[in-house]
Give the backbone structure.
Amino acid sequence: MADSLKFRPFFRSASVKLAAVYGVLFAISAVALVLFLLWSTTNLVDEQVEAAINADAQGLLERWNEGGMPSLVLTLKERVAENVDDDAIYFLADAEEARITGNLDAWPAKVIFPNIFYDMAVTRGQVVSHAAVRRFNLPGGFLLLVGRDVRGPQQLKRLLPGTLIWCAVLMTVLGLAGGLVMRNLFRRMVADVSATAEAISRGELGHRVRRSGRGDEFDRMAEAINTMLDRIARLMDGVRQVSNSIAHDLRTPITRARARLEDAAYHAQGEPELRAAVERAVADLDGVTAVFQALMRIAEIEAGSRRSAFAEIDLGPLLADLAELYGALAEEQGLTLRLDVPDTLPAFGDRDLVQQAVANLLDNAIKFSPQGTQIRLSAYVSDRKIRISVADQGPGIPEADRERAAERFFRGEQARSTPGSGLGLALVQAVATLHDGALLLEDARPGLRATLSLPAVPPARMEPASSARDALAMGAVAQEPIV
Amino acid sequence: MRILLVEDDPTVAGFVAKGLREANHVVEHADNGRDGLFLAASETFDTIILDRMLPGGIDGLRLLETLRGQNNTTPVLVLSALSQVDDRVAGLKAGGDDYLTKPFAFSELMARVEALTRRGKTDGPQTKLLVGDLEMDLLSRGVRRAAQKIDLQPREFRLLEYLMRHAGQVVTRTMLLEGVWDYHFDPQTNVIDVHVSRLRQKIDKPFPTALIHTIRNAGYMLRPE
C-alpha cells in the first residue's frame, strides 16, 4: 500500500508516461519486426528448396522425354556424382517401388501421392537426415523421387529464433533507453515552460521561457509563449496606467471634498461658512460622479453591447441640432460655429452615442478656441465613409501627443489648466470603434481637426474597416487649411 | 401629495423622505419590494419613487410590471444605481415614467417628482398656455407678453413651452436637455444656461419683471412674480 502510494506520483508524471509509451511502442514494433523477419526467412528457405526440386525434376523429365530410361538413369548418376554439397536426393524405382538407381536405400513408404512436397526423415547410407521430397509418376509405371537434404536450412531455422529473440531484447533495451532520453528532453522543455508559468504566478512578470536558438518546434513554442506574455504585460501596463489615473483623478476630488468637510467641521465659524463648505464638497463629489459615469459609459461602449441598438439615423438634422445647441455657447464665447452639413446624411448607428461623441468634439473645440476664431462642423461622404469633422483654430494637439490624446485621462500640456476629465476623446474613440469607424486627429493649421469617420453602409454588410488605432498611427496631416 | 417611497437604503430613504416632507408631501416608506408592492396596490398615491434593486424577492422592475399589470397608472420615478443606457431603457419599458440615476441631487429628484404629478393632471389638449402676462398660442405658435409680440426661434419656442408647461416648478438642466433637445447625455459645459439666458433676453429683458428665475443648485423656474 505504502509502496503503491510512493510509486503513484512517478507513474503520474507525464514524462515517465511518455517514456513508457515510447518504450512499449518501440518494443512492440521490434517484436513484430523480428516475427516478420523469422516468418519470411523460413518461408524463403522453404520456397527456395521447393523451387530447386521443381527445377531439378523439370530437367530430369526432359531427359526422359528425349532419351527414355537409359538417358534418365545416366543423368541421375551424373547428378549424384557431381553434387558437391551432397544435398540432392534422387531415387528412380519401378512400379513395385524397387530401386533402379538413386542415392537412397529404399523408396520411403510415406511418399504415396505425386506433386506434394513431403518433409520427412530419410536414411542415406546409414545416415539419417532431413529432406524435402516430391514424387513424380513417369510413363510406364516408373516412379521418380527428387528431393533436397534440408539439414542446413533446418539448422538456420532453429538458430534464427534465438538470434532474433536476442535482437528483440536488445531493441527493447534500446527502446527503453531512447524513452528515457525522450523523457529527459521532454522534461527539460516542459520544465522551462512550467518554471516560467510558476514564476509568473509568483508575480515575477518579467520571466520568459528560455530559447535554445535551434529554431525547432520547442523554440517556436517558447517564442509564441513569450510573445503572449509580452502582450499580456503590455495590457497589464495599460490597465495599471488606467487604474492609476482613475485613482488619481478620483482621489483628488475626494480628498478635496474630505478636506473641506473636515476643515469645516473643525474651523467653520457660523452656519453660512459651514453651508458653503458643504456645498463645495457636494460639487466635488458631483465631479467624482461625473468622471465615474463617463468611465462606465466608455466601458459600456467598449463592451459592444450597444450594437444591438443600432438603427438607421439621419446625421443631417442630428448635426444641425447639435450645432444649434453649441452654437449659442460658441457665440457667447466670441466664437463662430460654421455648419457645413448636407440636409440629409443617412448612417447606421446609435443615435445617442453619435450625438454624445460629436458633442464632446464641439465641447473640446469651444474650450480650446481663442476668442474671435471659427469652429467648423462639417460632414461629407468620401471613400464609402461618412466623415464628421470638427475643426478649430486653437492651439491644436502637438504631434507627439496626438496618438495618446484619445487615451483615458490623457491631458496635454495646454489642457491641464482647463476644466475637464480627460475622458472626452476617449469616449469619441470608443464610439468610433463601436461603429467600426475611426477617430482621426489632424493638424488643421492652425488648430485641430478631429474627424469621426463611420461606415457609410451598415457594418455587417462591409468588410472590416481599418481600426481607429491604425488611423491614429498614420498621423495624417491636413492638406488644406481652413478658410 | 401622497408619495410612496420604496427604497432599502436607510440613509437615502431618510434623506429623500425628509426632503419631501419639508416640501409638504405625505411620504409612505417601504424598505423592501414585497411591502412596497402591497402598499402601492392597496392605497392611492400621487407618485411612487421606486428603487430598482430591492431586497425581499421582488425587485423594482418586477414591482413595476406587476403594478402596471393591474392597470395601476400612478406615475413612477425609477431610482437606480444602474446607469447604463440599456438599464434606463429597461426601466422605462417596464412602465416607469422617469428614470433617475444614483447618486442624484435632491433638487433633481424633487423637480422630477413634481413634473410627474403635474403631468398626470393635465386634462385634454391645451391650445393656449398662460403664465402671468406671458401668453403662448400653441396653434399659431405665437408668443406675447403684455400684449407685445415676441419672436422666437423654433428651439426657443420649445424651451419656453416646456418652462410654461412646468410653470411654478423647478426645472433642472437635465430635464431641459431631455425634454427640449431629447439628449440623454451629460454635456460637460452648461450649454443649457446659454440657451436660457438667450430666452431671457427676449422674454424678460424688455419688461419690468422677470418670469424666468434661476434656482440655485437646481435649475430654473418660470413663475409670475
Summary: DSSP finds ten helices and twelve strands in chain A. The interface with chain B takes residues 279, 282, 285-286, 289-290, 293, 296-297, 300, 305-306, 309, 321, 324-326, 328-329, 332, 352, 355-356, 359-360, 363, 366-367, 419-421, 424 of chain A (CB under 8 Å). Chain A has three domains: 2-158, 217-301, 305-474. Residues 157 and 167 of chain A are 15 Å apart (CA to CA).
